[in-house]
Amino acid sequence: MESLRMIENWPVPTAAAAVVTADGTRTGSYGPADRRFPLASVTKPLAAYAVLVAVEEGAVELDEPAGPEGSTVRHLLAHTSGLAFDEHRTVAAPGNRRLYSNAGFEVLGDHLAKATDIPFGEYLRQAVLEPLGMTATDLPGSPARDGVSTVDDLVRFAAELQAPRLLAPQTLAEATSVVHPGLTGVLPGYGHQRPNDWGLGFEIRDGKSPHWTGGSSSPRTFGHFGQSGTFLWVDPEAGAACAVLTDRPFGPWAVEVWPALTDAVLTELRTR
């Protein structure tokens, strides 16, 4: 895709990107697709997917207690448990505020590990990475931010998010629909959002502004971005997904160039 060549002008040392359509066809790529990059918070959708597999397997339930008093697995996945951003302390009652929380995903990982008697990174490998052929992806630490992967592998995950094989379609539909609608909160890097909509481990585009996806992205777009300069979005109305990995931390440069790239990709897809 010509639109991906815009990355040549980005102020980053190295970047890799790819676009994959709903039928699993890679329609374009840029850069070293087999190079491993730190995912930062793009780790969270992978971790969430492993939890959802565990739900379908009966190892855990979405509404079982997990985390602070009154919180559940669902609250932790939807960033409504009341846990602070990066501290294991409670700052709100569950379900009252959208508090984006790395700590919540770490509690979630511990909860699943105890329920299955399998370390979370190993469960992720068995439940998601291995079945999808994501052989270059690893989680050596926190399920909130320590994943490492390649664009080649993320394309496989992006295809799964458009045509699930590991989950029932209704489970994925629930995960990519708004959970606890109407809650406000801060979207890291983009300020306060009213509402700040999320699904189960996936951020929902809706009408957020400003946002890291494009102005032409559909409200149904879901995905995640990471502080290591990474993102993955799926736009169901466009029938496509885009993964981008870089080796420059997120900052004003990303706020400027990411939406333009997304809009160019969507325009190119629509004119094919």
How would you sum up this structure, described in words?
This protein is an alpha+beta fold and 272 residues long. It has a single domain, classed as DD-peptidase/beta-lactamase superfamily (Beta-lactamase, 3-Layer(aba) Sandwich). Helix content is 32%, strand content 17%. The protein has helices spanning 43-57, 73-77, 102-116, 120-132, 151-162, 169-175, 252-270; strands at 15-21, 26-30, 37-40, 147-149, 185-187, 191-193, 203-204, 222-226, 230-235, 240-246. The strands form three sheets. A six-stranded antiparallel sheet has the order 2-1-10-9-8-7, sandwiched between helices. Helix 1 runs parallel beside helix 3 and helix 1 crosses helix 4 (120-132). The protein starts with 14 loop residues before the first strand and ends with a helix. The model has no long low-confidence stretch (mean pLDDT 97).
Outline of this structure?
This protein has helices at residues 43-57, 73-77, 102-116, 120-132, 151-162, 169-175, 252-270; strands at 15-21, 26-30, 37-40, 147-149, 185-187, 191-193, 203-204, 222-226, 230-235, 240-246.
